[in-house]
């Protein structure tokens, strides 16, 4: 400290902040008798690689009030044996973070994590964290600028919360697929820890008190979010696993109910019809006696006959004539397969539009054109893709379709017809490769922006604000 510099005066109890952890206001006890600093933390859990281990934990920043919980994460710098004032010894994780003492004064400190739930102060500032220009007045309190717990209110909490490292699970049986790899790499580039979980290797403990999900003999840890990439062949079991994550309170990008409904084409078209969303005229029947009437409901040939569980254009047949339609329908019935009969939109001319919807917005769109004589425009069947500008009507239809299924991430396929857009399908696990290349947009990054916004801590309620104000003056 230089001769003309003013010392930083601290009382035995102070208003301090740890902004890098999303804790701009804390009441701290300043204790020069303690060597190590400590932060009240619970649900402490390590994650990440052994080379760069991280720790995640939660903090109740309001004294005597456990309604507000701030989730935090940080890189572990050490694990240290600490003896508390009552003589108990404990192994604690040590993290580095910025200490804010007000008036523009801040510096890095090391702080240990421990459960101080029974302590009046949520933080203990030990002598190792004090700079040479700090002077502690042991008989005084609150010498630093006064702060308010209102920073945790609905208006301000989003501004005070930094981007933290999230632990994210991708439910996928194809870890090497482009889309899965794209999600993993983008998440890691943003500083998150992303783990691919094989859906078929998960199993569940279903009970009222402590529901769990296990994987390869171990209970799965808590995740901040789950990105489901559940294949059509495992929809039933995959959505059951997803329901278990929902039961645990984990944020799921797409819910189990929306995935289940979108995968069953009959159910999906009924959902679209219920929400009065335009689609090709569609008919379904079970009895062989209804074949002619079924065709008559849709209109004249050519017609589309589509298996209920078809994906990537498989199980979709165009019947050029009524007789051909009857033959295809009889063949499908002979296989005891469930199918739809659908109007063929001739003016679409072998093209459809894939709209990529994230959080209720169309963030990219591409036009897919069928290859050769094929009427199916799926890229997996040799179709080509290019970026396309869609109309307001098409954008609205795509957003409404995704919303009808409650999907935060969806690929909505539509046809351009003479009487407006017709929704063909709502895909709950859309691929990233074709549309990112066509649109030249970072759509995986857009998905993570949505996830990061969703897992922010919930703001303090008004009753909590009042109780915090009482604690502030106590």
Written account of the structure:
The protein is an alpha+beta fold and 474 residues long. Among the domains are: 8-162, Beta Barrel (Cathepsin D, subunit A, domain 1), CATH 2.40.70; 167-261, Rossmann fold; 281-344, Dna Ligase, domain 1, CATH 3.30.1490.20. It contains eleven helices and 26 strands. The strands form five sheets. The chain has a ten-stranded mixed sheet, with no helix packed on it. Strand 25 and strand 26 form a beta hairpin. It is elongated and about 95 Å long. The two termini are 34 Å apart. The relative contact order is 0.12. Keywords: ATP-binding, Ligase, Magnesium, Manganese, Metal-binding, Nucleotide-binding, Protein biosynthesis, Ribonucleoprotein, Ribosomal protein. It comes from Histidinibacterium aquaticum. GO terms for molecular function: ATP binding; metal ion binding; ribosomal S6-glutamic acid ligase activity. In the C-terminal section; belongs to the RimK family. Its cofactor is Mn(2+); Mg(2+).
Number of helices: 11
* Proportion of residues in β-strands: 25-35%
Q: Do you know the CATH architecture of the domain at 8-162?
A: Beta Barrel
- Give the strand order, joined by hyphens, for the main sheet: 4-5-6-7-8-3-9-2-1-10
Radius of gyration based on Cα positions = 29 Å
**Could you say which overall geometry the principal axes of the C-alpha atoms support?**
elongated
Average pLDDT for all residues: 87
Main β-sheet, in a few words? 10 strands, mixed
Give the N-terminus to C-terminus distance in angstroms. 34 Å
What name is given to the CATH topology of the domain at 8-162?
Cathepsin D, subunit A, domain 1
CATH hierarchy, class of the domain at 8-162:
Mainly Beta
Helix content class:
10-25%
List unreliable stretches of 5+ residues.
none
- Overall structural class, as computed from helix and strand content, comes to alpha+beta
């Amino acid at each position: 400290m230089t001769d003309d510099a003013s010392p930083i005066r601290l009382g035995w109890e102070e208003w301090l902040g740890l902004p890098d952890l999303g804790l701009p206001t804390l009441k701290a006890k300043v204790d020069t008798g303690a060597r190590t600093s400590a932060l009240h933390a619970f649900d402490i859990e390590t994650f990440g690689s052994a080379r760069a281990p991280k720790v995640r934990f939660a903090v109740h920043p309001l004294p005597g009030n456990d309604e507000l919980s701030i989730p935090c994460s940080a890189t572990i710098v050490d694990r240290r044996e600490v003896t508390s004032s009552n003589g108990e010894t404990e192994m604690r994780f040590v993290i580095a973070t910025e200490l804010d003492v007000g008036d523009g004064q801040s510096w890095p400190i090391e702080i240990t994590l421990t459960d101080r739930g029974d302590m009046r102060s949520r933080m203990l500032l030990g002598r190792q964290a004090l700079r040479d220009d700090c002077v502690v007045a042991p008989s005084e309190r609150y010498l630093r600028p006064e702060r308010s717990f209102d920073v945790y209110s609905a208006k301000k909490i989003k501004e005070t919360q930094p981007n933290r490292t999230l632990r994210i699970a991708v439910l996928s049986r194809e870890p090497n697929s482009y889309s899965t790899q794209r999600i993993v790499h983008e998440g890691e580039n943003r500083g998150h820890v992303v783990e691919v979980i094989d859906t078929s290797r998960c199993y569940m403990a279903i009970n009222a008190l402590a529901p769990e999900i296990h994987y390869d003999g171990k209970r799965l840890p808590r995740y901040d979010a789950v990105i489901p990439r559940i294949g059509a062949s495992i929809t039933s079991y995959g959505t059951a696993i997803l329901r278990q994550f929902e039961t645990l309170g984990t944020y799921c990008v797409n819910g189990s109910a929306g995935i289940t409904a979108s995968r069953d084409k009959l159910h999906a078209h009924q959902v679209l019809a219920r929400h009065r969303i335009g689609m090709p005229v569609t008919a379904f029947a079970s009895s062989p006696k209804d074949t002619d009437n079924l065709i008559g409901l849709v209109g004249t040939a050519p017609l589309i006959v589509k298996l209920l569980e078809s994906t990537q254009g498989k199980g979709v047949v165009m019947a050029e004539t009524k007789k051909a339609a009857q033959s295809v329908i009889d063949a499908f019935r002979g296989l005891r397969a469930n199918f739809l009969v659908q109007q063929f939109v001739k003016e679409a001319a072998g093209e459809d539009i894939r709209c990529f919807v994230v959080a209720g917005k169309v963030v990219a769109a591409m036009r897919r054109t069928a290859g050769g004589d094929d009427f199916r425009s799926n890229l997996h069947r040799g179709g080509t893709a290019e970026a396309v500008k869609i109309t307001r009507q098409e954008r609205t239809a795509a957003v409404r379709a995704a919303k009808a299924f409650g999907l935060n991430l969806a690929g909505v396929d539509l046809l351009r017809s003479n009487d407006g857009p017709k929704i063909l399908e709502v895909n709950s696990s859309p691929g990233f490769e074709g549309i990112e290349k066509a649109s030249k947009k970072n759509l995986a990054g857009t998905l993570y922006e949505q996830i990061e916004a969703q897992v922010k801590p919930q703001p303090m309620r008004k009753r909590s604000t009042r109780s915090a104000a009482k604690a502030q003056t106590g």
